[in-house]
Amino acid sequence: MFTNEIKDKMNLILRFLDKGFETDLFEASINNLKDSCNPLRLNNFAYAIRGLIDIIFERIAPKHEILKCPWYKNETNVDKGVSWAQKCIYASQGNFTNETLRDSFKINVKKIHQRFIHARRDLNKLTHISEKYYDVSKDDIEKYSSELIEAMYDLFTVISSLKGLIYSHVNDYIIDTTIEEVINDTIQNIDHLSSHYYISDVEVTDIIVVDLIDKNIILQANGVIFCDLQWGSNSDIRNDIGHIESFKFDFKCEFKNSLQSPYDLELREDSFVVNNKTFEDALYGTDDNE
Q1: CB-based burial of residue 53 (10 Å sphere; 0-12 exposed, 13-18 middle, 19+ buried)?
Q2: SS3 content of the chain, % helix, strand, coil (to 5)
Q3: Who's near 218: CB < 8 A, 6+ residues apart?
Q4: pLDDT, tens only, 202-219
Q5: pTM surpassing 0.70?
């Protein structure tokens, strides 16, 4: 009953769902539309989809985390209440304030937040029973259900796009900062291996969040240092009595990143570690007692 375009969007929606209950509920929601003898099949479909979205937001935007955000303020009539828009904001930008996104990333989120409100309106309109949406024709079933699926797709796409944009900004900056720290600092674990060493390249392989302390994120950067180790002086090298050989070493380091100022990165003391064990094992042999 759906066009290929809507089917493609349904398949993309499945990527946002946890396998198991969430995917089962999505499929059960669609099956409501096949109950041609039930004049409320469209309303039941819409109600189930809205319930599914509420379940998803309990997972990706838990209330206790939203209440800790610097941008949170109660917009409801309930004590410590959380609005639909605030759930969407947390799901897409986490603890980052609108001001931080505007000033640090040049991202204006006002229009994006409006899309959250519009999506909620589109998702709600079919859940309220009215003559317009009661016992509708097959063509109208396809029309209205397709509109709802598109609203659900747009909601998750906007959340994912903003989240990805923020991550890209922070990720690129962390990579650049890590490389700068590696190049500028003397690395003790490599320095003692030869007379001199020269770093030719630094590759950051991944960045992970390891902790959240107050209003700071603790990030760990992992990567590889490519360098040339030189034994002897430059004169020794010219006289062919020295030696240069290329090696690579795994490393990791941790940064403290402020949620309010994401470009304020601080290398944590004693967190920079270079693994030279493979090199030393090859050079000096392994310790059989280890």
Answers
A1: buried
A2: 50, 20, 30
A3: 209, 210, 211, 212, 254, 255, 256, 257, 268
A4: 999 988 877 766 667 788
A5: no
